[in-house]
Amino acid sequence: MASWSDKVAQVTQNAISKGKEVAGVTKLNVEIGALNQDIRNIQTKVGAYVLSNGLLPEDSFVAGLAEKVQAYKTEIEAKNEKIMELKNITVCAGCGREVSRDNKYCVHCGAEIVVKASASDKAQNSEAETVAEGAAVVSVENEVPAGSSIVWAEIVADNEDGAGKTAPDNGEAAGETIQRDEAKAADTAEESAGAASETADETL
Question: Model confidence over 44-71: pLDDT tens digits?
């Protein structure tokens, strides 16, 4: 039968073995995690290389990701421009340092400062151009075409001539109608008078 000291030694040995096991598993898990991170880093680099060089355009999945990346870049650029606008600064094209938008020349290198139009300025300019184009269209539509006054005068003259020709024709036709009606009335009166005379003679 094992003594008490042997039992303590056995428990201690088991604890040491378990500790080594846990330490070994932990070490391996850490190494596996590091390798997985390396894989993700490589995948990120591969993806960035593919997207930046426009590779695999025939792959719809890659093409979709490329469109999203481009949209995100555009949005980031717009937000950075907005930040610079709020801070009233711009980047010098000569030295690449930030300077005030109010400066005509860079205080660091002396290069001329060219301030890019901000997003709000672009929107205002676009709105102004749209209004100007609309006003131009309305002006053109309301404008009398060249030579139209001459054509209109000719149309009026033709109408007046037609009216002048039609009026005499209508007057002549009306006169002839009246003459025919008067002749018929005279004939009818003569016939009635003759009939009355015959009737009177027969009565006598």
Answer: 999 999 999 999 889 999 999 999 999 9
Cα 16 from chain centroid (whole Å): 74
CA–CA separation, 77 and 80 (whole Å): 5
- Predicted confidence at residue 189, as pLDDT, reads 56
Characterize 182-192 residue by residue with b for buried, 16 or more Cβ atoms within 10 angstroms of its Cβ, and e for exposed.
eeeeeeeeeee
Q: Which residues contact 47 (CB under 8 A, 6 or more apart)?
A: 65
Non-local (6+) Cβ contacts of 115 within 8 A are: 90, 101
Could you report the per-residue pLDDT of 139-178, keeping only the tens digit for each? 544 554 444 444 445 544 555 555 444 444 545 555 565 5
Q: Where do we find the tokens 């008490």? A: 4
